[in-house]
Amino acid sequence: MTRGKDSLGPSATRRDFLKTSAMGTVALSGLSLARSAHAAGDDVIKIGMIGSGGRCSGAAAESLKSGPGVKLVAMTDVFEQRVKNSHQRLKEMFPDQVVVADDHRFHGLDGYQRVIEAADVVLIACASKYHPLYAEEAIKAGKHVFVEKPHGIDPVGVRRIKAAAELAEKKGLSLVSGLQSRFHKGYQETVKRIHDGAIGDVVAIQSMFLRGPYQLQERLPGMSELEFQFWNWYHFCWLSGDDVIQSLVHNMDRASWILKEEMPVWAFGLGGRSSSFGEVYGDMFDHHTVVYEYASGARVYALCRTQAGCYNNSSDIVMGTKGKCYLGDCRIEGETKWRFEGPHNNPYDEEQKALIEAVRSGKPLNSGYHMANSTMVTVLGQIACYVGSETQWEEINKSEFQFRPGPEATTMEMEPPTKPGADGNYPLPRPGIWKPA
């Protein structure tokens, strides 16, 4: 939440918050809750799901684990079968807390509106293109929001989520990001020690998200081309934004945290596809490398890859003038030798617990000070890989580039924005030629 400067309100600056918050992740505001939101002290908090795939189902389960007073009341997804499957699994796990009536299980592109109407807290984890729109609409309606990463797939979308965070602050509503690293107790203590000088000045960070292909969804019989792309949405850039934005956003949020929210000045990148061919891979690259340079002199070397049978690693190594930090191990080597010994926690559970507690207490959490910027860093990196040339932070922040069509313009009856060629492969961006039009 992951992943400039956002306001934290008159009672807490970002610097004060990082020094004093036990979470190190989200700001507590003294603003009163909007009257349309759950009132502090009520026993029951109604949650609703926008998206019924694995991630939103997981977020709902984590939220329901926070206590019997949390009830799931509404669900939606583009596909009716996903709603049915998720509802069945969650009902088996939480029989007394899943109280979704038949007429509150929606499907299609407009079900999000009904979920927002029914819930106090809206959980959003669906095709990432829609995250900013749905979060904005929920906040406008006076609802608290959990929104999965990434928080936009292009500059237009990220600016939209940033504005939504500012609106949530004004309305006294919680907006919690799915960038869960900042809820990890081991990371919190490790980053605190980095900030206190345990490895000296940070010189470079090596960030990796190297893994096999992600959730390959085969085309089902009778599916239209557009339905297939929504079914397999991760692998289509107009719905997901590609893998720098999808995967490295976790690493770059941690890098931004380590660098005290400093944003890069510019980046260059390289990427393409070398081993993942066929319609199921859509139009995403299967490997990327991005180099970010900062005014402080630090550099981040970020790599992501989605190829089978290759070396996997999803950690970060922070190099300083007095030592190194292996963040995944919560370990420091050099002049200072230290390892976090616990207690460990599950950051996915922790972020949902924190959200529910914030709603109950009337002290909202707002991830706005970092979630948009961390996402924009990956948008910068993705575009740098596509264009093949150096790309400036200020340029991206002003860019009007948006993966077309925009979220409001999509319908299930439209022609898809990309189609496969005769060989079954979809056209890819061509570095050195592609332009953000």
Strand-helix topology:
Layout: H1 14-20, E1 27-28, E2 45-50, H2 54-64, E3 70-77, H3 80-93, E4 105-107, H4 111-118, E5 121-124, H5 131-140, E6 144-147, H6 155-171, E7 175-177, H7 185-195, E8 202-211, H8 225-231, H9 237-240, H10 243-246, H11 248-258, E9 266-272, E10 287-293, E11 299-306, E12 316-320, E13 323-326, E14 331-334, E15 338-339, H12 347-361, E16 365-366, H13 371-387, E17 391-392, H14 393-398
Parallel strand pairs: 2-3, 2-5, 3-4, 5-6, 6-7, 8-11
Antiparallel strand pairs: 1-16, 8-12, 9-10, 9-17, 10-11, 12-13, 13-14, 14-15
Helix pairs in contact: 5-6, 6-13, 11-13
C-alpha Rg, in Å? 21 Å
Low-confidence blocks of residues: 1-36
Helix percentage: 25-40%
Indicate the CATH topology of the largest domain.
Rossmann fold
**Structural class, please?**
alpha/beta
Give the neighbour order of strands across the main sheet.
Answer: 15-14-13-12-8-11-10-9-17
Largest sheet, in brief, is: 9 strands, mixed
Q: From the coordinates shown, what is the CATH architecture of the largest domain?
A: 3-Layer(aba) Sandwich
Q: Give the CATH level 1 class of the largest domain.
A: Alpha Beta
CATH H-level homologous superfamily name of the largest domain: NAD(P)-binding Rossmann-like Domain
Tally the beta strands: 17
Strand content: 15-25%
- Cα separation of the termini: 29 Å
Mean pLDDT: 91
Assembly category: single chain
